[in-house]
Amino acid sequence: MYLRPEDRARPNRMALRIAVVGGFAVVLFAILFFRLWTLQIIDGPQNLAQAKENRMRTTKIVAPRGKIMTRNGEVLVDNRTSLALQVDPSKLPAETAAKNAELKELGALVHMKLPAVLKRIAEEEKVVAAGAPITVRRDVGYHLIYYIEEHPGKFPGVTVEKVFVRNYPGEDEAAQLLGYAGEISEEELKEGPYKGFEPGEIVGKEGIERSYNQFLHGTPGISRYQVNALGEPTPGGNLHSTPPIPGRSLKLTINPAMQKAGEAALAERGLPGAFVSMNIHNGEILAMGSYPTYDPAVWTNISTKQYEALASEETGAPLLNRAIASYYPTGSTYKLMTALAGLENGYVTGSTVVEDNGYIELGTQKFENSEGAVNGPISLVHAIEVSSDVYFYKLGARMWNNNDLQNWSHKMGIGDPTGIDIPGQVEGLVPSKKWRDELFENGETDRPWSQGDDVQLAVGQGDLQTNPLQMAIAYSTLGNGGTVVTPHLGKEVLDTAGRVLREIDPGPRRHVDIKPETRQLIMEGLHLATSGPGGTATPVFGEFPIPIAGKTGTAERSIFEPNQSWFISLAPYPNPNIVTVVTIEKGGFGAESAAPANKQILEAYFHNTLKKESEEGTEAAEEGYEEESSLEGSTEEELPGEESTGEEVPLVETGTGEGG
Amino acid sequence: MMYATRARQARPELFDDRPSIGERLGLAQMDWVLTLAAIGLIGFSVFTLGQATTHDVPGSPNYYVERQAIYGIVGVIAMLVMSRIDYSRFRELRVGIYAFVCISIALVFVFGFAALGSRRSFELPFFSFQPSELAKLLLVLALAGFVIDGARRGSPVRRTLRYLALGLAPAALVFLQPDLGTSLVLGVGTLAVMYFGGVPWTHFAAIGGVIVALIALVLVVAPDVGHPVLKEYQEQRLTSFLHPSSDPAGAGYQQDQSMVAIGAGQKTGRGNQATQTRLDFVPERSTDFIFAVIGERYGFVGAAFVLSLYALLIWRALRIVTLSKNRYGMLIAGGIAVELLFQVFVNVGMCLGIMPITGIPLPMMSYGGSSVLATFLAIGVLQSVNIQARLSRQGRFAW
Q: Whose CA, among A22, A607, A650, B82, lies 20 to 30 Å from B113?
């Protein structure tokens, strides 16, 4: 066969070229084999571990927080599920333009403009611990889930999660007591009771939610399952799961009828104020409230602006629980402390008669009775009844230099923390010689302690700073014969089935020795104040079918403002079970606003008894009170205003077995 | 030159001119090692797909296996048929073949079926035909013809430029589909034919320089001046292998997962515990990343076995280059061998994380009719070169 030269294979020239390609092939295959060996044999174990880790996902299953209920099971706080639009900032596009474009589109889906979304994220980033997703908006619709799932890749770092949100069936009922729960903050993760929690967890921030967080906060469950590359669980891939344990429920000591009555009483007067009603034997708080108030549902989606509004002076600071966090003078309700100090230290007895000519003079200062009253010769019981300032001015003046009044104030719980189970209480101040003299030495005040200071304190004026709860403690200590109780709002911890897991009973804080005669005298005076002919509160309580002891107070806060109205009751008389304190800023005389408000709360407490009486006539009182079964007092035996001393009324606390 | 074989001597004189069935099919002259390597690869592909892709297509649990098995059988038959054709015919048909390549690729733009943002194939009943796969073979056949016939026309430089223009025109069309991987294969095939066609080394040095400059232009300069040539995903894929772990959510992720998958296979593989490839951490497990499936399921043993089959294949292909009776056979065998080597190295290298993601299938392993068929046809051409060479040594010519 003939082959043209160009068709002929030219082995010599070609051999080199083929050899080069062959050598090249050998090198390439060597590279592949070497790489394969490295990956599979040398790094095999690490790669296997990585592969196993890849397919596993561990997710936390959120545990719902426990419910909070009133003492009879009425729900104040529970949960509802809500869809929350969440953003994980670390997974958003790194470039600002791309990030903003995504957030803008996202915002459009939930009717938020880009600046609003950015602001929201910036605000939340400050509050929420690093690493936790940021909730842009709660309560979004289901369509959003579908939309985002149908556009994977369009919204990196965005998820719609089902979350539990606090729900408040009682609306603003007991708002300041409940406080709120929110996402754990960076600082809380580092120290305090929530140290060691995980970012993103919901913890109690204020009030009951905070102080009982250990019960209310459930244990999150854990689910480990196999996923595919998209993070979707694969069929049969559930490897291990621990179900979440829902938080325990908490039953409060709150009596909802009294709570509502108290809140209504304040609301209808429309003035800032507070009330507290407490079982004097065990410290259970039956009602506590502060006005103005707010709807705690606002916490689920609060903005900085809203928060600032709730905390600002202009709106009356609805967040503030005035029952425990206020600094008030108390006016004449403080005469309890003065009377105790006077009697127990022997300055006066029940029969000591003091001349009340309407005023006293100390050097250049003149202290007058209010309204210019002149009561003439007067003993302690009647001094309390008519609220003679002069009697107590004189008593205060006699004790000015020896701290007796201050000692008794502290004994009764004024100016000290009360031990209540919610955060935020203030200590207050019982002004004393030591205190003022020290201030004077440091140049922080213009004058040292004087007799006038003690005179002022004797009637609850001057530098005194206390609050309704401290006053409730003081009156309850008198009412129960000397036990300083620990006020508390928590009553029982329940499991989800409603079984009681733990009863909350902090026990008394201490005992104060009060002579029975002392108690008897003061109680009588307090009773007359609500029922005697000259009683300051007789116009309010004179017709009230249940005998009570009580004291009005009218505190001067400033000469430019109306006085602050106080009323403190111990009911029923003579063996009280509850103490109820109402104060209304700018409410005027004690009998003017605080006493009627106080009466509204008592009406709620004695609701059943009062109903029976109105149905069956006034004689039916002996049948007793539904809640206060051990009460045996019959109203007719008491002859208001007649006897002042001597009658031995047993001080046995008949109500101790009864929690109410 | 001509001598009698022993077989012929043993035959009765009467039937001297009548070849046996085996001879008629060319089985005796086939390269059996090459055949077995190819059948071993497609067999292993079907086996792997059978284990790894069951239930991937809802309602049709054996979708990939059945189809790949059919493609394999059709492919083997096509190889046998092709091996019986005297490859020299292709040299005569070079213009027609070349025109077919260019037109079929161009037609895809008009009638093509778009998948994942690129038009690459025609939708036929039972089959979607991808002309660019076939072009890998046909371009080599046509170009080799042009090289042989134009060997004396023009200066060496003009010749080189002509070959380049002829080869790169279809490559550019494929690039525009866009199918970067296949266009690279066509480019490499063109260079291989030129290489075996005797283009001077100096010209290759110049071409190499231009390629480096082009890469710099495409990857660095063009995007900077605002006229990117590559689509963003292409560029990311091409460069991410240089820093595979830098962005687990981005383009490097797939490759990262592929490396983890292969590594996790260790010595003997994870079998059905192969979660990386079973749970979609590695994408495209039936096609581009099938080597990762093999690596994870069958470990070093399986992966090395497959690589060995490819090594065998390339060795036999290069051996056929040396055996070829004429230059045309040498050129086409060389072009096919280099294309196969390139595809294997780039695909396996991609799975192993040492080459960029270019979308080149692994010949005869990756699922896909066009690719399997085109590869078997190419092997058939190799067989044809082998058969013709042996027949010519035996003093016989194909009929």
A: B82
Enumerate residues 198 to 257 of chain B having a beta carbon within 8 A of any beta carbon in chain A: 198, 249, 257
Q: Give the separation between CA A345 and CA A322, rounded to whole angstroms.
A: 33
Say what the ipTM of the complex is: 0.89
DSSP A421-445: SSS-----B---HHHHHHHHHTTSS
Q: Residue A353 pLDDT > 50, yes or no?
A: yes
The conformational region for residue A646 under phi > 0 = left, psi -120 to 50 = alpha, else beta, is left
Asked if residue A98 belongs to a domain, the reply is yes
Q: Does one domain contain both A279 and A151?
A: no
Partners of residue A10 in chain B, C-beta under 8 Å: 327
Q: Which residues of A are less than 8 Å from B280 in CB distance?
A: 228-230
| Subunit contact A32:B283, Cβ cutoff 8 A | no
Query: Considering only CA atoms, which of B392, B320, B322 is closest in space to residue B5?
Result: B392
Contacts of B390 (CB under 8 A, 6+ apart): B29, B323
Picking from A3, A14, A234, the nearest residue to B279 by CB comes out as A234
HEC string for A236-260: EEEEEEECCECCCEEEECCCHHHHH
CA distance A396 to A401: 10
B371 Cβ contact list (under 8 Å, min separation 6): B130, B133, B361, B363, B364
For residue A290, give the CATH number of its domain.
Answer: 3.40.710.10
Contact A48/B321, CB-based, under 8 Å?
no
pLDDT of residue B26: 64
Helices (H), A56-113: 96-109
Q: Is the pLDDT of residue B4 over 70?
A: no
DSSP states of A137-150: ESS--HHHHHHHHH
Residue A228 resides in a domain: no
Statement to judge: residues A193 and A263 lie in one domain = no
Q: Which residue has the tokens 């890469």?
A: B215
Query: Is the same domain home to A167 and A269?
Result: no
Mean pLDDT of B60-77: 89
Report, as an integer, the average pLDDT of B123-136. 80
Total beta-carbon pairs less than 8 A apart between chain A and chain B: 153
DSSP label of B28: G
Residue A441 counted as domain residue:
yes
Q: What integer pLDDT is reported at residue B55 of this predicted model? A: 66
| Subunit contact B261:A51, Cβ cutoff 8 A | yes
B291 to chain A nearest CA, in Å?
11
What pLDDT is attached to residue A612? 79
Residues A262 and A332 grouped into a single domain: yes
Residue A92 domain boundaries: 75-171+181-200
Q: Which of B178-187, B199-208, B386-395 has the lowest mean pLDDT?
A: B386-395
The CA–CA distances, whole Å, from A351 to A317, A466, A523, B291 equal 47, 31, 15, 108
| Residue whose pair of structure tokens reads 């019986």 in the numeric block | B84
Helical segments of A186-254, H only: 186-190, 207-211, 213-216
From the candidates A6, A10, A32, which should be mutated to test the interface with B, based on the most B CB atoms within 10 A?
A32
Mean pLDDT, residues A572-596 taken together: 90
